[in-house]
Amino acid sequence: MSPPIVLGISLIVCILIGIPIAFAIGIATLVTLFVGGIPLAFIAQQSFTALDSFPLMAVPYFILAGALMETGGLSKRIIHVAQEAMGNVTGGFGIVTILACSLFAAISGSSPATVAAIGSIMIPAMVKHGYSKDFAAAVAGSGGGLGIIIPPSIPMIIYGIVAGVSIGDMFLAGFVPGFFLAFLMIMLIYVTSRRRGYTGTGQAFQFTNFMKALWDAKWALFAPVLILGGIYSGIFTPTESAVIAVVYGLFVGLFIYKELNWRQIPKTLISSAMITGSVMVILGTATAFGKLVTMYQVPNMLAAALTNISDNKYVLLLLVTALILFIGTFMETLSIIIILAPLFLPVLMQLGVDPIHFGVLLVIGAEIGMMTPPLGVNLFVASGISGLSIERVSKSIFPFVLVLIFGMLVMLFVPWMILIVPRIFG
């Protein structure tokens, strides 16, 4: 049996029997190294090379920054601003959740962190105002997906490293898709709320109250301006911006809002380190896996097979998108990006697909995977907050998944929606 077949079969078997994805990738790589007669030190060498990266240092810092800002009261003030702006609209609390997720996404860079930060406040608030608990959990679980589309985004950083494209351009490319998908979700919430009778707060919009909320949240709202403004002005790199985000979140939480205390910091550091550790294990093993895939010319074989089907780039993008959505149901986001980017990007670039266009589609597909069982991380977070079963949350979130797939298909056929901002400012 040839090594590429051994690699594929080993990975599938490990996943089917329930081995965590990082270890499944590592085991499949080790088995293939043994069959191919390659020294087992290969996996250690490739893992070290993958992790020895300056841009990659942004990942743990953005994870820590998001945790500090959630604990320090920034997410609460962001929600208050959105409530003052949209609270009286039909479905206002659901719309506020999406708006707050959009704003917090520009701080955290993480989808589960966004669900946790916003959902822990907004799910109980929606239930209190007459929303069904199923719908409230679905809104928070889907809105959290914006955390990896609206920059800064940890998966975009990983894609930039793997694909060799500018992380700054990837961040720029995320703005229009992120807000377009947020708009589609808001429309779905509004229509559903009208049908179910989910009303707003009953209090008319008051400019004075809105300005007070805006002023109270000025330090929270300045965070994305600081992080993204520094990157695009060239003052600092994405990695440096992540460090600044940590310092800023620590300073605001401790000395301005005073909701973060020194006793909470060790717990925040430990939880952030655990998340970072899992990311690094996945990245290390998946990089070795990807190197093996390249060595055995799997991308070339895949290119030949795909071009035999069609040489139309949109047909192939549709096929790849369908595969991403399928794999996303059982594979972790970063693994999808690290494995599929080297496989499909060379093929698609030969047909004229821009790597930034494909990268954003890949991240959106991975985002949708976070909302689909059995491995949808957002589902687990929303389930934990709401106290509902994964099955009930999955059923309620399905309309949001369909809306997001529709938005993804629109951007697949209309690349300028993704590319216009990086082409203007990149």
Quick tags:
single chain; mainly alpha
Structure description:
With 426 residues, the protein is mainly α. The chain has one domain (3-425). The protein is 78% helix and 0% strand. Helix 6 runs parallel beside helix 8 (133-143), helix 9 packs across helix 18 and helix 18 (333-350) packs antiparallel against helix 19 (355-369). It is globular, with a radius of gyration of 21 Å.
Brief summary:
The protein has 426 residues and is mostly helical.
The biggest beta sheet reads: none
C-alpha Rg, in Å?
21 Å
Tally of distinct domains: 1
What is the 3D shape? Answer: globular
Number of helices: 22
Residue share in helices? over 70%
Strand content: under 5%
- Quote the distance from N terminus to C terminus: 47 Å
Overall residue-averaged pLDDT value? 85
Low-confidence stretches: none
Order of helices and strands: HHHHHHHHHHHHHHHHHHHHHH
| SS class | mainly alpha
Question: What's the number of extended β-strand segments?
Answer: 0
